[in-house]
Amino acid sequence: MRKIRKVSFADLVSENKKQLLKDQEALDRIEARLEQKRLEKAE
Q1: By the 8 A CB rule, do 12 and 5 touch?
Q2: Which residues contact residue 18 at a Cβ distance below 8 angstroms, ignoring those fewer than 6 apart?
Q3: pLDDT tens digits for 1-43?
Q4: What region does 35 belong to: left with phi over 0, alpha with psi -120 to 50, or beta?
Q5: Could you give the CA distance from residue 12 to residue 27 in angstroms, rounded to a whole number?
Q6: At what angle do helices 9-22 and 24-42 cross, to 10 degrees?
Q7: 20 and 27 in contact (C-beta within 8 Å)?
Q8: What is the rounded CA–CA span in Å between residue 34 and residue 40?
Q9: pTM metric for this prediction
């Protein structure tokens, strides 16, 4: 049997961040959502 690898939350966050930085479409969606939130708060 394989030994189950326990991944810390920080490792998961950094792995997710690396994947997002490679995905331009996801970055664009996140940027659009942030801009929308800023516009709503400004009103």
Answers
A1: no
A2: none
A3: 667 778 899 999 999 999 988 999 999 999 999 999 999 988 7
A4: alpha
A5: 18
A6: 100
A7: yes
A8: 10
A9: 0.57
